[in-house]
Specification:
The structure holds two protein chains of two kinds. Chain A is α+β, with helices and mostly antiparallel strands. Chain A has 16 helices and 23 strands. In chain A, strand 20 and strand 21 form a beta hairpin. The N terminus of chain B is likely disordered. Classes of the chains: A alpha+beta, B alpha/beta. Chain A: This is Dynactin subunit 4.
């Protein structure tokens, strides 16, 4: 069981059930196992909490709404689409037509997902044989294949070779596994556009016959079906004009009026047009119309399975990495053997800017250029809400018991039923002093309740002024402050080094801050870890994953006074009054302290 | 790659407000009048969404597929798995020394459950969690595969029609509140499958994860649905049984009480990779039965020489990593067909020993065919669509098909069975119906109405009655009069799949019966849905006809959840 470093997770207020969707939804609140009251304790072990907890670094902050914004509650806009492999930008229009994958020559190995390179299939002739100058040019020509430099997979294994070293994506889409060519969508469309294709019945039948023994691939069947349905939908309307169907959408048009009438008169008023239209689609009868009879004979595949064994089959994860292959024989002919895996074109990625969903202000905007990782705007929550650092505190290291001494080492296991102390350091990132109120349940929720005592649940943290501001400001006041601080510093060092000999300061006092700095405050939390022993007869005999983690839910409420950034109207009034605005921010967070020994 | 989107000039509705596009549909129908403006109550409030593409989302128990309407296949597929349920920023999965502690999860009754989005038994389901899972999976699918921003988009969901309302409601809640989509239309997957196969009626055999559902679709309506718990989950559990049986005896895990010795992930993987299904034993089917049967059997004969020998001796090595110590297991190849046999057929037991909820698949299919009215049955049996994850088990589809055709051959369409009936048949004095026994077998449906009367007590009167002139029938007749429909023979057909079917439906601008408005949902929830019969009896009947479009304008007043019912 790996030890962990203490961590903090913050629950974005957006996942409060009260703000989520309909408040009348009794189901979700009941599922939470808690009421919507204020005193509801947040349970970090509830399966739902995994969806609402974020490390501080993942959170953004809207300056105008004064609210935390998590990845779930931001509105995203796409800045650029690019390929993560070649870092080329892809215009959004391409995306619609070409799909979500890189259409250049960027491919991933289907076995090990490493990048594939285009190489010539021709093996280099033995250099000892001939030293003629044209030898060097020879490998450049000839068929090409995609090869993986990591696992040596080559597309020749699935029988795919390319004529040209560029435009691999286009070439690949025309090739089935094994190297047989297939009609591309474009060619098929051209064939469909061919006037003889639909006008004369003779050619239609001829086409159908030629196609009947051929198995439709996914894309062809879809295209056939689509054109079939479209012709069916258009047929009955041919007599009375193009989009008559669209014209009687509302009740304002006469046709639909008559239809309404017919509801009451039992269909006698139905005019011919309506009769023609309703239920006019017949079903597809031919391969050409998209009907594909299933071939249930899979004995060949079974034989292959038998001969190739487990190693010959592709694992589910590899299969799920495969791009949808429109050219494959059919849904049920989906590849399952390693020998059928195709190179994976890289999925495109996006750069996204993020907006506050409420006030529509941009809270994060990356640089549009693909190569840069900088952001133009990025309002991270870390510079608006206090961060919490957790450190084990060895109070009684002087007393010399080895067991409690282990608690002082970061990442060590916590002893059950043995009080341990942790130092929480709150750092204030904003330029106003803030008042922090903490609330934590006396016992952690879950099957194993550890006792938690926050020794100082209410305190104030000074503003995050510039380090030099203090020194440069009023020399007398600041100096005094610095003196005090220096003295505290000295005391702290003494306390740590001297152990409990001079423990006038080291005494844990309820309601007292442990330490204070320029813009930070440390307080002590005492925990008594639970005894992780399951009674016999309980339904579950084992600890669940992470159940030995000591996690404290803590409600943090931050209050501060800020200059009123009044709206345009209020600003005039507010400015001369020097109005201060009281703000508050409240959220649940989870402090992971460590694992309990079991 | 996806040229169909290029040839799809009509993004759902609003575009007609703006310009008149050269729609492919009326292009073909020769000269046509210019398009009139559509009444304003039909247009969406903002024409900015003109180029909006509708998202098609197929939600299953184990995976979620997303894509745009008009595409032949989904662009992305997200599987539900425990890794997905971790906190954001929890990267332990990437640590080299980390392995998912499946044993403790299994001990908590989670073996495989954390790979599921929902359970149909809603008593124990944390509905909020279902919403969270859908939301996260959709978010991942949108950013990773669809590459779309978070502008509100209309969605079409393809759902199993048996989805309980609480689950559906939780899913809708979460998506409406997070993704702000203005409307969500619901399509039932059997229907979408039928559309994706190009037929109006079908027998959809969905070999799904939690259960196998046999749905009869007749003229784009689900008329009957039967289910059995023999599904993918059962198959994986039987595979586990097989592996556990063959692993050395170790008294389970450390404390000896573990029900599971191999992780679900591994079992599931082995199941999808290695498990296959034996063809129907030949001894039982002495004579070649029907034409449809011939395909499989002929093939068998061709390979009879070499295969049985190699099958007996052949063995397969299956590596197992999640056991106490990584090992590899040598299994005879035949053994890998056992799980399939046990999970789906269990032919060693008599048919009477099964409860209604655990019927073997061939019986399930046969019974659901048997229960259908004759005309519906005739159409459905020649349009059998296999779908669902387990239909990828090699040989399973063929086996079910063979078993069913054998059953039909054996029993005909006689719901009454038993010794009494047999005696009746055997006794020449009492035998009145030997004519039927003679040879028509599965094609019994095709028999003239006079005979149908004898076969089937229920339909007794139908033959003598003068048929009413039915408006709908007339139309169906008219629609099909040109070419005869295939009916009465067993015939399997391939469907593009429910997702692609829904993509077609949406692309062709046929609106779903159940279209839910965001505002309406947020106000009333599932309680606001009216019964499908109240809401739009008319439009439901016209399902795929162009008249279905009317539904959109009526959506404001009364809306329905369609087959998903009303509270």
């Amino acid at each position: 069981m790996a030890a962990i470093t203490p961590y903090t997770y913050i629950q974005c207020p957006c996942s409060d059930s009260s703000t989520l969707g309909r408040s009348s939804d009794t189901n979700s609140s009941r599922a939470d196992g808690a009421d919507d009251d204020d005193d509801r304790t947040f349970d970090p072990r509830a399966p739902r909490s995994n969806y609402s907890l974020y490390p501080l670094e993942y959170l953004l902050y809207c300056e105008d709404c004064h609210q935390i914004r998590c990845p779930r509650c931001v509105a995203e806009e796409i800045v650029t689409y690019y390929c993560p492999n070649c870092l080329f930008e892809v215009p959004s229009s391409n995306l619609k037509s070409e799909g979500n994958r890189c259409t250049r020559s960027c491919f991933q190995c289907p076995i090990c997902i490493g990048p594939l390179a285009v190489t010539s299939v021709e093996t280099k002739p033995d250099p000892s044989l001939l030293a003629a100058p044209d030898n060097t040019a020879a490998p450049q020509s000839g068929p090409y294949a995609l090869t993986c430099s990591y696992c040596n997979w080559s597309s020749t294994e699935v029988g795919i070779k390319f004529d040209k070293p560029n435009g691999i994506h286009a070439q690949l889409s025309k090739l089935r596994n094994g190297g047989t060519a297939r009609l591309t969508a474009k060619e098929r469309k051209e064939r469909r556009r061919d006037p003889s294709y639909r006008s004369s019945a003779a050619t239609e039948q001829g086409d159908g016959r030629s196609g009947s023994d051929e198995k439709l691939d996914l894309e062809t069947q879809f295209a056939n079906l689509k054109s079939f349905y479209q012709s069916q939908l258009a047929d009955p309307n041919a007599s009375d004009g193009g989009l008559a169907a669209l014209s009687d959408l509302g009740f304002s048009s006469p046709t639909s009026l008559s239809r309404i009438m017919s509801i009451y008169t039992g269909g006698s008023l139905h005019d011919k047009k309506a009769k023609l239209r309703v239920g006019a689609i017949r079903e597809a009868l031919e391969v050409d119309e998209g009907l594909q009879l299933a071939d249930l004979d899979e004995s060949a595949a079974i034989a292959q399975l038998h001969s190739e064994g487990h190693d010959g089959t592709a694992s589910t994860s590899r299969l799920s990495d495969q791009p949808p292959n429109f050219g494959e024989a059919h849904l049920h002919g989906r590849s399952r053997f390693v020998s059928e895996l195709r190179p994976i074109p890289y999925l495109l990625r996006t750069k996204r800017s993020k907006r506050c969903p409420v006030c529509r202000h941009i809270i994060s905007k990356p640089e549009a250029k693909v190569q840069t990782t900088r952001f133009r705007i990025r309002l991270v929550a870390g510079s608006y809400i206090p961060s919490i650092a957790i450190r084990p505190l060895s109070l009684s290291s002087g007393s010399g018991t080895s067991a409690s001494g282990s608690a002082g080492i970061p990442g060590a296991l916590l002893e059950p039923l043995k009080p341990a102390h942790y130092l929480l350091t709150f750092t204030n990132p904003i330029f106003e002093s803030i008042k922090v109120t903490l609330g934590a349940p006396a016992k952690t929720p879950g099957r194993f309740a550890s006792k938690v005592t926050v020794l100082c649940p209410e305190f104030e943290i000074d503003a995050n002024t510039d380090v030099w501001d203090e020194a440069l400001k009023d020399p007398s006041g600041a100096g005094e402050l610095r003196d005090r601080e220096r003295e505290r510093e000295r005391r702290r060092h003494k306390g740590e080094e001297g152990g409990n000999v001079s423990n006038n300061n080291n005494q844990l006092e309820v309601g007292k801050i442990w330490e204070r700095g320029r813009n930070w405050v440390s307080i002590v939390v005492e925990v008594v870890p639970a005894w992780l022993r399951l009674e016999h007869g309980t339904e579950e005999q084992r600890l669940r994953e992470d159940e030995d983690l000591l996690e404290i839910p803590m409600f943090v409420r931050v209050e501060w006074e800020a200059e009123a950034v009044g709206d345009e109207v209020g600003a005039v009034v507010g400015r001369d009054k020097e109005a201060r605005e009281k703000r508050e921010l409240a959220y649940w967070c989870v402090l992971g302290l460590g694992r309990i020994r079991h | 790659m996806s040229a169909p989107t290029g040839s799809a000039p009509l993004p759902h509705r609003t575009v007609a407000n703006i310009r008149s596009p050269p729609g492919a549909g009326h292009h073909q129908s020769g000269p046509s009048t210019p398009i009139r403006h559509i009444p304003s109550n039909f247009g969406s409030p903002s024409s900015l969404r003109a180029d909006e593409e509708i998202l098609i989302i197929e939600i299953g128990t184990r995976k979620l597929q997303v894509g745009f309407s008009g595409d032949p296949a989904p662009r992305g597929c997200v599987w539900f798995c425990p890794d997905q349920q971790r906190r954001v920023g929890d990267f332990r999965d990437w640590q080299t020394d980390y392995r998912y502690d499946w044993r403790s999860a299994a001990a908590g009754g989670l073996w495989g459950r954390d790979h599921e989005l929902w359970q149909y038994d809603v008593r124990g389901v944390n509905l909020g969690l279902v919403g969270d899972k859908i939301e996260r999976a959709l978010g991942e699918a949108f950013t990773k595969y669809l590459l779309i921003d978070s502008r509100p988009r209309r969605m079409v969901w393809v759902l199993p029609s048996a989805l309980p309302i609480p689950v559906l409601s939780a899913a809708l809640d979460s998506v409406f509140s997070r993704f702000q989509s203005p409307t969500i239309s619901l399509l039932s997957s059997p229907l979408a499958l039928a559309v994706g196969a190009g037929v109006r009626s079908a027998l959809v055999i969905d070999l799904g994860w939690s259960e196998t559902v046999v749905t009869s679709v007749y003229e784009y309506r689900e008329v009957d649905s039967k289910r059995s718990i023999r599904g993918g989950r059962m198959l994986v559990e039987h595979t586990h049984k097989l592996l556990a049986k063959n692993l050395p005896e170790t008294q389970g895990g450390p404390d000896g009480k573990d029900k599971y010795v191999v992780s679900f992930e591994e079992c599931s993987d082995i199941t999808t990779r290695m498990v296959w299904c034996k063809p129907r034993p030949r001894s039982a089917s002495g004579q070649p039965s029907s034409d449809a049967l011939a395909t499989v059997q002929e093939q068998d004969e061709g390979e009879l020489e070499d295969r049985p020998v190699s099958r007996r001796t052949g063995s397969v090595t299956v590596p197992i990593r999640s056991w106490l110590s990584p090992t590899s297991l040598e299994l005879p190849f035949d053994a890998l067909a056992e799980p399939c046999e046990d999970a789906f057929f269990e032919s060693q037991y008599s048919p009477t020993s099964f409860d209604d909820h655990e019927l073997p698949l061939h019986l399930l299919v046969y019974r659901s065919l048997l229960q259908l009215p004759v005309d519906v049955r005739a159409l459905c049996m020649s349009r059998i669509i296999f779908t669902g994850g387990c239909s990828n088990v090699l040989g399973l589809r063929g086996r079910i098909f063979d078993e069913v055709s054998h059953l039909i051959q054996e029993r005909g369409w006689d719901p009454v069975r038993g010794k009494g009936v047999d005696q009746l048949r055997c006794n020449p004095k009492l035998r009145k119906r030997d004519a039927r026994q003679a040879g028509d077998g599965p094609t019994g449906v095709m028999s003239p109405p006079g005979e149908g009367e004898e076969q089937d007590g229920v339909w007794h009167d139908a033959a003598n009655m003068i048929p009413e002139i039915d408006f709908i029938d007339e139309q169906l007749q008219r629609a099909t009069d040109r070419r005869p429909r295939v009916q009465g023979t067993l015939r399997p057909i391939e469907s593009l799949g429910a997702w692609s079917g829904a993509s077609l439906v949406t692309h062709l601008k046929a609106l779903a019966i159940a279209t839910i408005d965001r505002e309406g949902w947020l106000q009333h929830g599932a309680a606001g849905a009216s019964k499908p019969s109240d809401a739009d009896y008319k439009t439901q009947r016209q399902s795929l006809g162009p008249g279905g479009l009317m539904r959109g304008s009526a959506a404001g007043s009364a809306w329905t959840l369609g087959v998903w019912g009303a509270t």
